[in-house]
Amino acid sequence: MSTLPKVAWIGLGIMGSPMSENLVKAGYDVTGHTLERDKLDRLAAAGGTAAASVAEAVRDADVIVTMVPASPQVEAVAYGPDGILENARRGALLIDMSSITPQTSVDLAAAAKDKGIRVLDAPVSGGEAGAIEAVLSIMVGGDQADFDEAKPLFEALGKTIVRCGPHGSGQTVKAANQLIVAVNIQACAEAVVFLEKSGVDLAAALDVLGGGLAGSTVLARKKDNFLNRDFRPGFRIDLHHKDMGIVTDAARTVGAVLPVGAVVAQLVAGLRAQGDGGLDHSALLRAVERLSGAQV
């Protein structure tokens, strides 16, 4: 019998499916629930167990991980008679790895404490590739003792794992991450259009840029997307639009001014309004192309 904690995993999307499967590979007993039958079948095929409801998934779990799109979905699975807080056992550890508002995380931790359930907010960065390869960056908010307990589980999912402070801190750092990523993708997209219109060999240019100060994880990860106009979703524009809303609202609350971030947030919103919300965020290239006169 495994001595590892029993895990309930709620949310088996682009990120959640490979992450839960990596826990199975690491020897964890994982029971998952999501709304899509094919995702449940995928988890079962990988060695996990499918549950028909949140309540069923969490009832016997030592650790509960949620990985859903946004604050409303976290609240939907956490609260109510069929939710996590009403059905998890006292002493369980709830790890929310979704990207949500810091205040939602703070409120969830307070509500869970009344039920004897501990909470960490632990959003991630690295996209679908990072989830598959188990090299995610994981930024955590919550108590040190709970972080220490969860560290082995995090190590099966990522490589850079840092406690950033109390409840909500992980979400604040994730918001900053999404600001940097969006601005970086926008800069790369503008460079691609500039290079192509100048008649430069784009592949060669991106190679040499990647080796200098302009190099970044974003450029390395998204270079092929730009070259091949491959915008199959690894991280959807819809979700980055949500995240840019989080960071701009949070910045306003603390009095931080984000002039470049505000412009990029509007460009993301514009791309979404043009029907590209389901594409990968590297599709910001399409927005720059349209502004530069291309028919996209």
Automatic annotation (TrEMBL):
Q: Which UniProt keywords apply?
A: NAD, Oxidoreductase
> Gene3D superfamilies annotated for this entry?
N-(1-d-carboxylethyl)-l-norvaline Dehydrogenase, domain 2, NAD(P)-binding Rossmann-like Domain
Any idea where the 6-phosphogluconate dehydrogenase NADP-binding domain is? Answer: 6-164
Query: What residue stretches are annotated with the 3-hydroxyisobutyrate dehydrogenase-like NAD-binding domain?
Result: 168-287
| Annotated InterPro entries | 6-PGluconate_DH-like_C_sf, 6PGD_dom2, 6PGDH_NADP-bd, HIBADH-like_NADP-bd, HIBADH-related, NAD(P)-bd_dom_sf, Tartro_sem_red
Where on the tree of life does the source sit, at the highest rank?
Bacteria
Matches recorded under PANTHER family: 3-HYDROXYISOBUTYRATE DEHYDROGENASE-LIKE 1, MITOCHONDRIAL-RELATED
Q: Which family does it belong to?
A: Belongs to the HIBADH-related family.
Query: What is the protein's given name?
Result: 2-hydroxy-3-oxopropionate reductase
Protein species of origin: Streptomyces erythrogriseus
